[in-house]
Design goal:
This protein is α/β, with parallel strands linked by helices. Helices cover 42% and strands 15% of the residues. The chain has a six-stranded parallel sheet with strand order 2-1-3-4-5-6, sandwiched between helices.
């Protein structure tokens, strides 16, 4: 079974390296780079999601999706629209809607940062703003209830910004499980890769 691990907006596909290294069946794991699958198109959310749909639909059979932050939003969106394609879903530090206040604060901070700061991120400064501005109205509050595949929700203990969302998702996705990873913040795959891999191995082995 092919597993697709999707990174967040502030990171690259390499952010999964340590997790993948500790997975039982890592030869079946794909880690797409979100900027690459855009194929030169503007980094709007609609373009990114459309490219993600194309990427996933080219994979034969069902897939396991595992996404962090932006990656989780893409995975969530896809699982809602393509229920027959998704065998299981893992959402890590994933908001079910974009918090407008936090978004405004983030935008102010990003505007003050030099372009060089974005070199370690998947999108440059310009594309980061384009993506963010086209995500402001995203809200899956009334859609997550339709998800039918086994779902695991994960949140780092220190990721206070997404803890409320983790509660919401666990309560509104039927039969979902959720876990808090202790002493860990938002970027779980880099901050605590071995523990995340252990949880994912247990989850996939049980499904």
């Amino acid at each position: 079974m092919i597993k697709v691990f999707i990174h967040g907006s502030g990171h690259k596909s390499s952010s999964w390296n340590e997790v993948v290294k500790n997975m039982h069946y890592n030869e079946d794991i794909l880690c797409p780079d979100l900027s690459s699958i855009l194929n030169g198109k503007e980094a709007s959310y609609s373009n990114l999601y459309s490219s993600f749909i194309d990427y996933c639909n080219k994979i034969e059979g069902e897939i396991d999706l595992c996404g962090l932050s932006l990656g989780g939003i893409l995975a969530l969106n896809y699982a809602i629209e393509y229920p027959g394609k998704v065998k299981s879903l893992v959402l890590i530090g994933t908001p079910y809607k974009v918090p407008k206040f936090m978004f405004r604060i983030q935008n102010i901070i990003f505007r003050l940062l030099p372009k060089s700061t974005f070199k370690g991120m998947v999108f440059n400064k310009k594309d980061t703003f384009i993506l963010g501005n086209t995500m402001k109205e995203l809200d899956f509050s009334n859609n997550v209830q339709v998800i039918i595949c086994p779902t695991l929700i994960i949140c780092g203990e220190k990721d206070k910004a997404n803890m409320k969302s983790a509660h919401f998702l666990s309560e509104n996705i039927k039969g979902s499980e959720w876990k808090i990873i202790q002493e860990t913040g938002h970027v779980v795959n880099e901050e605590n890769p071995k523990e995340l891999a252990r949880i994912l191995n247990d989850y996939y082995d049980g499904n």
